[in-house]
Amino acid sequence: MPTIFQVVMAGYWEKFSTSNNRASDKPHWLRYCHCAKLTAPSAPPTRPEAAPPPTSQRAGALPRAPHLRPRAPPAAAAPRSERRCVRGGARRSGAAAELERGVCREPAMLNMFPARRLPGGCRAIRPHHLRHHSVPSASPNLAFVPACLPPHPAEVEEMQRFISNSKKLFVMTGAGISTESGIPDYRSEGVGLYARSDRRPIQHAEFVRSATARQRYWARNFVGWPQFSSHQPNTAHLVLRHWEKLGKLHWLVTQNVDALHTKAGSQRMTELHGCTHRVFCLTCGDQTSRSELQEHFEALNPGWKAEALGVAPDGDAFLTDEQVRNFQVPACRKCGGILKPDVTFFGDTVSREKVDFVHQRLAESDSMLVAGSSMQVYSGYRFALAAREKQLPIAVLNIGPTRLDHFASLKLNSRCGELLPLIVAH
């Protein structure tokens, strides 16, 4: 269906055009309009997908979906880096919409995706057919998503071939997969924490040795926790959960501490850097839930209030030193020790046991997918190096450059939540 803007402009064109409203003189979006009265008088109304492909389209290429047709002449198109993601992108199918609602059916449900056979037995999805099964779905939160273009059908085909050839897929995710859930990351151009502020995350050594640093950290975390804990998994999290249920995903390693993969239902998973939903004592090791600690904070600070000046990754909020001065921090109820979130702070290291366990899961896999991570932190990058040593094919799905770009088998610059639902796992 044409957009409201296109219908209004169509009427304007019909009334004021000086070229007798010939189809050849109309803008390309007007010529593809579904309304019969907007079609050239000499030509019968046709379905958009039945129209002959433009002469510039190369032979054998996938037809462009209506929403992917050029919207302006090439000379007027903005550079790729300056254009923001299109919110709608390729319309989701009924299966993709069910994934968003948490519904998981038999593998046969994905047969609704029309596909064509590729050399080597791979199936490439035809994105322009997805609209036949489209249903209304909530738009992702793009406030912290950097600029990008919607995936081109050729890119979808490349990722489809990679996933189809993978039998035991090892997936590593980063902050970029959670930005569409409204959680900012650190490094994204223009929208990450480092681009928006000169603030930096707390260091492990500073947290351990300084009571003032702990007071500042917990006050900021106390203010930011209600919003941070309310974030929900997006389509990309649900797709990976579905791949796990189908047996396509062998193991998932996330560098995130937001628990969104857990909320999505993933089970074959390692939280490499821990999870903010857990808190433990540095002295006795006693563990408690973060929600329980929030209640303890409220009991200790009944009259304390502060308004956040901004949001940061990992549940922090921006507060001034004056705001946190009178905030009271509880100690461990069992031994009086220091309470710390069960996460690996910057400057700390991941336990040897966890690293060895992840290496074992990687050794059992036949390919690696990195989704939403620039892999700048060595704790995650080491596994990409191990995959390269094992000569495993590596695909990277991330907006912006990564440390893997020079040796990855495939690199795509798209939103995880926009491209992954277009892939058929079978």
Give an overview in words.
The chain has 426 residues and is α/β, with parallel strands linked by helices. Helices cover 30% and strands 11% of the residues. The chain has 14 helices and eleven strands. A hairpin with a 5-residue loop joins strand 1 and strand 2. The chain starts with a helix and ends in a 7-residue tail after the last helix. 37% of the residues are buried. About 30% of the residues have low confidence.
Radius of gyration: 25 Å
Look at the helices and sheets and give the structural class.
Answer: alpha/beta
Number of helices: 14
Largest sheet: 6 strands, parallel
Compute the number of strand runs: 11
Strand order of the largest sheet: 5-4-3-9-10-11
* Topology order in helix (H) and strand (E) letters: HHHEEHEHHHHEHEEEHHEHEHEEH
Content of β-strand: 5-15%
Helix-residue proportion: 25-40%
Report the principal-axis shape.
globular
Q: State the end-to-end CA separation.
A: 32 Å
Mean pLDDT score, rounded? 74
Low-pLDDT parts are 12-138
